[in-house]
Amino acid sequence: MKIRKKLMPFILVLAFVPALSPIMVFAKDYGDSIYHIPWRFSVYEYPDKAARRIATFAPQYIRITYTNEYGWAKIPTVHGEYWVYLNLAPPLWGRTVILDAGHGLGADITFMNYSEQATMLRLALKAKPLLEELGATVLLTRGAPENVPLHTRPALINKWTLQALRAASDCEEEIAEIDRLIHIMEKIIANPEYYASIYMSAPFDWTRRRAIHPDLRRIFYLQNNPIIYQNFLAISLHTNATSRPVNTGVNGADVYIISNTTHYSINYFNNYTNFERSRTFADLLLDKIDALGISRRQISTHNAFVLIREHNIPAALVENGFHTNPSDRAKLMCNIFLQSLAAAYARAIVDYFNQIRY
Ligand SMILES: [Zn+2]
Fold this sequence. Notes:
Elements: H1 2-15, H2 22-25, E1 33-37, E2 41-44, E3 53-57, E4 60-64, E5 66-67, E6 72-77, E7 80-85, E8 96-101, E9 110-111, E10 114-115, H3 116-133, E11 137-140, H4 152-168, H5 172-190, H6 192-199, H7 214-223, H8 226-229, E12 232-240, E13 253-257, H9 275-291, E14 296-301, H10 306-309, E15 315-322, H11 326-332, H12 335-355
Parallel strand pairs: 8-11, 8-12, 12-15, 13-14
Antiparallel strand pairs: 1-4, 2-3, 5-6, 6-7, 9-10, 13-15
Helix pairs in contact: 3-12, 4-5, 5-6, 9-12
The structure holds zinc ion.
Zinc ion (ZN) binds near residues 102, 103, 109, 116 and 238.
């Protein structure tokens, strides 16, 4: 009884706090998983709903140190370790997949009634619910036919990863630095015409003399953290075309990934850390697209693509066939095929996260 009375004021204070910020509540520690809980959730003293409820929180990233077989996860807070009931452990739970539907309205590429921006948006919007059913958090650089400027897109990717790192940090200096970098990304997102040329290789420096901006370099080093490279994957969705004169006989799917060794990147930034992971995903995906009848071409390194160059997370730019080829184009213009293609992405993404254990 005496102990209970002692605890009462502490418990009451917690019970009336509607939502605490992640910085105040969640402490960095020995855990190895970070998860995004997309709904309001409560933490309990024991892994049992009959146990005392300690507090309720707004949706946020949390760090999990232990999960039991009944669907309960243990999370560290500054008040001690408590339990949250998650009730699910689907294959992509805790993973964040960023889908970038290439181009946009006003920046479209069209051929024989085919629209690349509309088709890739359709593919992204078909893949999103499949991935969410599998437990993933899916973030889209655009979810409508709008034209999101090219350099806004990697700035969004950087911002989202910095937000996840911020949630995992308990160091004030580190959080202050992350906030400063998030603010820079927000400036690019709001005004890419002005800020992308300051912080990114924009327009791309074909003379190959430009070195990466120190703030972007810092972001790239921060992203080399298991919280990011084990949980995030960015995919830019495109279809290909042969240059004029159009050779309609060329068909098949390609994937582009970043490397440290081509002469285009070596003076800009040469410490990208996800080559093997990106290649693992590209390999799995090309096999699955091939099985759908768009033949596997190859994985290539390329450094002139903004969506794989201006961040340092596992990423692939996918050319889902040639829209200049009648057979590939007919498939891509068919909704049933796009649904199968979206499912192929979901299977490749599940296989990818199962394979990367490094
Ligand atoms: Zn494209």
